[in-house]
Amino acid sequence: MSTTLSSSPSPASGPEGVAVAAERRWAVVVALIIALLIAMMVITGLHWASMPPSRVETVDVKTLHLQGEFVESDLGTTLGADGKVTVRLVAQQYSFAPQCIVVPAEMPVTFRGTATDTIHGFVVGTTNANTMLVPGFVATFTTSFSKIGEHLMPCHEYCGTGHEAMWARVQVLPAQEFLARARNGERLSCVAR
Ligand code: CUA
After folding, report:
1. What is the average pLDDT value for the chain, to the nearest integer?
2. 124 burial via Cβ count (<10 Å: 0-12, 13-18, 19+)
3. Would you say 103 and 171 are in contact if contact means Cβ atoms under 8 Å apart?
4. What's the rounded Cα separation, in Å, for the pair 174 and 172?
5. Is there an atom of ligand 1 within 6 Å of 112 CB?
6. Which atom of ligand 1 lies at the shortest distance from residue 162's CA?
7. d(Cα 107, Cα 112) in Å, to the nearest integer?
8. 69 lines ligand 1 (CB under 6 A)
């Protein structure tokens, strides 16, 4: 009985059967790839919705110049009691506050920034210090600088007619020099005293 079945011509045997089997194999492979891609989209989508790539931290644009860490007197570089270096800055059309930022070399530096009017951004020279500044949100990242000297820090998000003239400077000091100047417990400015 079984011998008759296998030898009898049917769609599942002969060259046609081989082709059908091959097509079915490819259909399964393609279906698996599509299922994998959809699973990746769903899983990464859900994962990022609950844990975005950068923490979501909001700030009230209407009051940030009056209270909180972004008041003008608190902008710039500070050395905390815990030895951590933090740079706070605000972007607006068409300048950064402060206009010049002092940071130490070879030490972790945490940037915290926001914008008051529209989306801005900055990159420090050719380093990897690079972020967008979005009104209502605090952008933060930690990096360290290896090249001592002055870097240009242009705005890199088109923000209006004055965009190309919007830039600040970053002075990278040797860590010892930075620490010597920071001991006073004041905000650091680019002007040597
Ligand atoms: Cu600010 Cu472009």
Report:
1. 87
2. buried
3. yes
4. 7
5. no
6. 2
7. 16
8. no
Identify the three-state secondary structure at position 46: helix
Alpha-carbon distance of 30 to 37, in angstroms, equals: 11
Beta carbon of 65 within 6 Å of any ligand 1 atom = no
Q: What is the pLDDT of residues 66-122, one digit of tens each?
A: 888 999 888 999 998 888 999 999 999 999 999 999 999 999 999 999 999 999 999
SS3 letters for 47-88?
HHHHCCCCCCCECCCCCCCCCCCCCHHHCEEEECCCCCEEEE
User: Is the pLDDT reported for residue 6 higher than 60?
Assistant: no
Please state the pTM of the whole predicted model. 0.71
Atom of ligand 1 nearest to the CA of 159: 2
